[in-house]
Amino acid sequence: MNIYEEQKVVALYCLASLGAIGWGTSPHIRCASLLLVPKMLGKEGRLFVMGYALAAIYSGPAANLRSNINEVIASLGCTVELQINNTRSAWRVSTAPLRAVFKGMVGSKDSLNKEIQNVSTSFEEMDEQVKSDAGYSSEDWDKNRESTEMFGTSRVRPYLSTQMVYELRTRLRCIREEYS
Questions:
Q1: CB 152 within 8 A of CB 145
Q2: Exposure pattern of 133-168 as b/e (b: 16+ CB <10 Å)?
Q3: pLDDT of 44-71, one tens digit each?
Q4: Is the separation of the CB atoms in 131 and 166 below 8 Å?
Q5: Orientation of helix 109-131 relative to helix 63-107, angle to 10°
Q6: For residues 41 and 87, what is the distance between their CA atoms, to the nearest angstrom?
Q7: Closest CA to 29 of 20, 41, 17
Q8: Tell me, what DSSP letter sits at residue 153?
Q9: pTM of this structure
Q10: Which PANTHER family match (predicted)?
């Protein structure tokens, strides 16, 4: 009971004095209280004590256990939610630079295409020079090609790189100008 300690002591003294007055004045109270002891030791008494003990256990340790289980469930739910939030944040932070690069690439697609076209147009003149036969004859080309194959370029690889073709054609033009 939720009462002060002084009130409990007063209630105990009142019950003890009522019992003493009842024992002193009434044979019915004496008989009833003496028959209470064997009754408590019998089947009904044991059921009463067991019910009282179960009620005490349910209101004490069982209620505490139920409260603790509820707190554990809430704690696990909070921990899982924090784990999910932290994982989501870590993923966003770790992929932010990559996402920024991709956004930049997508945003600069038009300018990249323009740059590629500018590079292509600036090399058109160079391509024309490499592909042109101006300044030498095709006979000079065939002779020079045979000499190149003798000095290192194998017949297994008959195709010359663009750089080698440009060098050969430039040399042929220079040779042609020296003799002209």
A1: no
A2: eebbeeebeeebeeeeeeeebeeeeeeeeeeeebeb
A3: 878 888 888 888 888 888 888 889 999 9
A4: no
A5: 40
A6: 64
A7: 20
A8: -
A9: 0.35
A10: DENDRITIC CELL-SPECIFIC TRANSMEMBRANE PROTEIN, E3 UBIQUITIN-PROTEIN LIGASE DCST1
12-53 pLDDT per residue, tens: 999 999 989 998 999 888 888 887 877 777 888 788 888 888
Specify the pLDDT at position 144.
57
Pair 59, 51: CB distance under 8 Å: no
Q: What is the mean pLDDT of residues 84-112?
A: 89
Look at residues 114, 165, 115 and name the one whose alpha carbon lies nearest to residue 144.
Answer: 165
- Could you tell me the residue ranges of all domains in the chain? 5-82, 110-179
CB burial readout 57-75, b (16+ within 10 A) else e: eeeeeeeeeeeeeeeeeee
Instruction: Locate 166 and state its tokens.
Output: 């440009």
Q: How many residues does the chain have?
A: 180
